[in-house]
Design a protein that fits this description.
- With about 170 residues, the chain is an alpha/beta fold.
- Helices cover about 15% and strands about 15% of the residues.
- Strands 2-1-3-6-4-5 form a six-stranded mixed sheet, covered by helices on one side.
- The longest helix is centred in the middle third of the chain and has 14 residues.
Length: about 170
């Protein structure tokens, strides 16, 4: 029996993860007592039952932080080659939630694009946020949480996402 499960399109950008945990309640009697081997497997008759835990990865955190900002302000520090511009487009496409408008801005940017020629000393992270860089992983990006003053990569194309603190009202002009 084959089954097809359609996943909502808004979660397909993230790597879908199923976590299977196998544990035992058997007490260990000594340092060498590993107990019986525990195996977990999914069978054709297995059922996935939704729990109350939500999976969140750094990219979904970026999307959640930017989703209520209309429009998202994007700034460029430095200049880009044609190849860098193509990669920057992919980074922006991954980082900005689908359907949320954005516009160029030189001040109060929510997303700052650092060109490969930009020296990290010329840019200061002004608050908590995320660093988004290209990678060879399946999604093609790496997302790392940043705190104020965290070091930036020595060179290379990068997005710095620094949304304003959450406020009531939901949008920002």
């Amino acid at each position: 029996m084959a089954a097809k499960i359609d996943l909502p399109s808004d979660i397909q950008a993230a790597a879908n993860t199923i976590e299977i945990v196998a544990t035992t309640t058997r007490n260990r009697t000594g340092p060498c007592d590993e107990g019986p081997e525990i195996v977990a497997e999914l069978l054709p008759t297995s059922q996935l039952i939704a729990g109350n835990a939500l999976f969140a990865d750094p990219l979904s955190e970026v999307h959640d932080a930017l989703r209520g900002i209309i429009p998202i302000k994007v700034a460029l520090v430095g200049s880009l080659s044609a190849a860098d511009a193509a990669m920057a487009s992919q980074l922006l496409d991954a980082a900005i939630p689908q359907g949320v408008p954005f516009k160029p801005s030189n001040e109060a940017a929510h997303v700052t694009l650092l060109s490969p020629a930009t020296h990290p000393g010329t840019f200061m992270v002004k608050g908590p946020g995320w660093l988004v860089t290209p990678d060879s992983e399946p999604l093609g990006i790496v997302v790392r949480k940043l705190k104020r003053g965290d070091p930036l990569p020595p060179s290379g194309l990068a997005l710095i996402v620094t949304p304003p603190p959450l406020q009531s009202g939901g949008t920002e002009g």
